[in-house]
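Students often ask why inverse folding is considered easier than folding. One informal answer: many sequences map to the same fold, so there is more than one right answer. In these notes we will look at a single instance of the problem. The structure comes first.
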C-alpha cells in the first residue's frame, strides 16, 4: 500500500540493526533480549557508522551510551575507529560524519562515570583527551571535554591544541576561528590564564585582540542597503548577489528592506518585479507582497509556482507558507481540493501543509488525503510528512492512525517518529498500551516525554522504567518533569 524506506544504509525495521539505527525503543529492548554477541555487533555498527540523516537535529548518542553500559561493551572498537589511519585523511566535514557520534557516545559515558563511579568514565575521558590532541575531529572531542572534564584534565591539552596552528598570519586566523566557534569557551579561558605557559597565554591574547579588530573592520566596511535606497536599488542589490560567484542569497534581507522603503505608490513596480525575469528580484518582491498580504499576491504565487525555474518555484511556495491571513487559508482550500495533476505538485503540497497547520475540522479530509498521498508516492521519510503528521494529531483525525503507525515503524528519522508518536497519542486509542511503552526507551527526548505522559502503567516495565529515568543524571528535565507528574501520588485521592 505504501512506499517503504529505500535508504540502502538503513536495515529493515524488523531487524535488530534496523531498530537500533532508527533509535527506536524496541531496539534497546530487543538488544537486551538478544544474544550478547549479536547485540554488540549491531550496537558497534551504529556507533561507528552514524545512521542519522541529519546529525544536527537527530539524537542517538545518549541512546547508544545507555545501551553500551547495559551491555558492558568496552571501548576497544571505538578506540580503533577513532585512531584508524583514515582519520587523518578526512576533511573537517568528513571527520564530523565519521567520528562525531562515537565522540558524543564517549562524552555520555564519561558523564555517567563521573556521576556514578562507572568503570567506563575515566577511560572515556582519557580517550577523548587523547583524540583531542591527535585526531582530525579534535574540536568535537574538545567540546565534549569542555562540559565534562575538570580543569586539571583540560589544562594540559593547551600546548598540543595550539601546536596545531602554525605561527603565521594564516595559522593565527585559523586559531582565532577555532576559539570563536568553540561550543564551550572554558578550555580556551583556562589556557589563556595558565601561568605555566606564559607564551601560550600571550598568543591567545593577541588572537583575541585581532578577532575584535577584524570584527570592527567588517562593521566599518559593511556593504548593503543604506538609507535613501529606492525599491529599484534594493531589488538590484538582491539580483546582484545571485549573480556573484559564489551566489549570495539576499532575497530575505531585501524583502525586509522593502518593508521600510516601499509605499503604495511602488506597488505596481513590485508586482512587475514579481512577474519579471530576474529571479532574486522576483523572490524578494514576492516575499514582500506576501508579508503584506497584498490582495494580488496569491495569483502571483500561483503563477510563479508553475515557472520552469526551481528557485522561482521555491520562493513562491516559501512566500505562501509565511502568509497567515484568511484569504491565504481559503486559497489553500481551493488549491488542496484541485484534481490531481491540475496544479503543480508543490502548490498542492504547500496548500495541504497550510491546512494541516492552520485549518479546522472541515479540512481534516484534505489533510488525511495529503498524508496518504505523500506516503504512497514519497515513502515514510518525506520531509513533506512533518506538518501533515502534526496536522493529523492537531485535528485528531482518527482515520489517520493506520498510516501514522506505518510512518512510526518505517521512518528512518527519529524526529519524524517523535512527531508521529505525539499524533498517535491524539488519534489512536491503543497508543498508551502499545507504542507508548517502547517510546520510554526512544532516542529522542521529546518522544520519551510523550511516553512519560501516556504510557499505561499496567505494564510492569513502565513503572520501573519511569523510576530509572527519574533518577538518571543524563535524562532531560522535560522528561523527568513529566515522570514526576505520573509517579507523584494524586492529592485528590
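Output (designed amino acids):
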Amino acid at each position: 500500500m505504501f512506499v517503504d524506506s529505500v535508504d540502502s544504509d538503513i536495515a529493515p525495521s524488523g531487524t535488530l540493526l534496523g531498530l537500533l539505527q532508527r533509535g527506536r525503543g524496541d531496539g534497546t529492548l530487543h538488544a537486551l533480549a538478544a544474544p550478547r554477541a549479536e547485540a554488540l555487533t549491531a550496537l558497534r555498527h551504529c556507533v561507528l557508522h552514524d545512521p542519522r540523516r541529519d546529525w544536527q537535529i537527530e539524537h542517538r548518542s545518549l541512546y547508544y551510551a545507555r545501551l553500551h553500559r547495559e551491555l558492558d561493551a568496552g571501548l576497544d572498537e571505538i578506540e580503533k575507529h577513532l585512531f584508524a589511519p583514515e582519520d587523518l585523511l578526512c576533511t573537517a566535514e568528513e571527520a564530523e560524519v565519521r567520528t562525531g557520534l562515537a565522540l558524543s557516545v564517549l562524552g555520555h559515558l564519561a558523564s555517567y562515570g563521573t556521576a556514578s563511579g562507572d568503570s567506563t568514565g575515566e577511560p572515556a575521558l582519557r580517550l577523548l583527551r587523547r583524540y583531542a590532541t591527535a585526531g582530525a575531529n579534535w574540536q568535537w572531542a574538545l567540546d565534549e571535554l569542555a562540559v565534562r572534564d575538570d580543569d586539571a584534565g583540560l589544562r594540559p591539552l593547551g600546548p598540543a591544541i595550539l601546536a596545531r596552528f602554525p605561527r603565521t598570519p594564516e595559522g593565527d586566523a585559523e586559531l582565532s576561528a577555532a576559539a570563536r566557534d568553540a561550543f564551550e569557551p572554558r578550555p580556551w579561558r583556562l589556557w589563556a590564564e595558565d601561568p605555566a605557559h606564559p607564551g601560550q597565554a600571550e598568543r591567545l591574547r593577541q588572537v583575541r585582540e585581532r578577532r575584535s579588530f577584524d570584527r570592527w573592520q567588517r562593521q566599518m566596511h559593511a556593504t548593503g542597503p543604506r538609507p535613501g535606497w529606492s525599491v529599484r536599488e534594493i531589488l538590484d542589490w538582491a539580483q546582484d548577489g545571485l549573480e556573484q560567484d559564489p551566489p549570495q542569497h539576499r532575497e530575505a534581507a531585501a524583502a525586509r528592506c522593502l518593508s521600510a522603503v516601499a509605499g503604495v505608490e511602488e506597488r505596481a513596480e513590485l508586482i512587475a518585479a514579481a512577474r519579471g525575469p530576474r529571479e532574486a528580484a522576483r523572490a524578494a518582491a514576492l516575499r514582500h507582497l506576501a508579508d503584506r498580504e497584498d490582495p494580488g499576491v496569491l495569483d502571483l504565487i500561483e503563477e510563479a509556482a508553475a515557472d520552469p525555474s526551481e528557485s522561482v518555484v521555491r520562493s513562491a511556495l516559501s512566500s505562501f507558507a509565511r502568509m497567515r491571513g484568511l484569504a491565504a487559508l481559503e486559497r489553500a482550500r481551493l488549491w488542496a481540493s484541485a484534481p490531481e495533476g491540475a496544479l503543480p505538485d508543490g502548490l498542492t503540497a504547500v496548500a495541504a501543509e497550510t491546512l494541516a497547520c492552520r485549518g479546522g475540522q472541515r479540512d481534516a479530509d484534505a489533510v488525511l488525503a495529503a498524508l496518504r498521498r505523500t506516503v504512497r508516492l514519497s515513502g515514510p521519510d518525506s520531509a513533506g510528512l512533518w506538518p501533515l503528521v502534526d496536522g493529523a494529531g492537531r485535528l485528531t483525525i482518527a482515520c489517520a492512525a493506520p498510516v501514522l503507525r506505518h510512518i512510526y515503524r518505517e521512518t528512518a528519522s527519529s524526529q519524524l517518529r517523535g512527531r508521529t508518536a505525539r499524533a498517535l497519542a491524539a488519534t489512536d486509542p491503543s497508543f498508551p498500551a502499545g507504542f507508548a511503552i517502547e517510546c520510554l526507551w526512544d532516542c529522542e527526548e521529546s518522544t520519551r516525554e510523550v511516553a512519560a505522559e501516556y504510557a499505561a502503567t499496567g505494564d510492569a516495565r513502565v513503572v520501573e522504567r519511569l523510576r530509572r529515568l527519574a533518577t538518571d543524571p543524563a535524562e532531560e528535565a522535560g522528561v523527568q518533569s513529566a515522570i514526576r507528574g505520573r509517579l507523584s501520588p494524586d492529592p485528590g485521592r
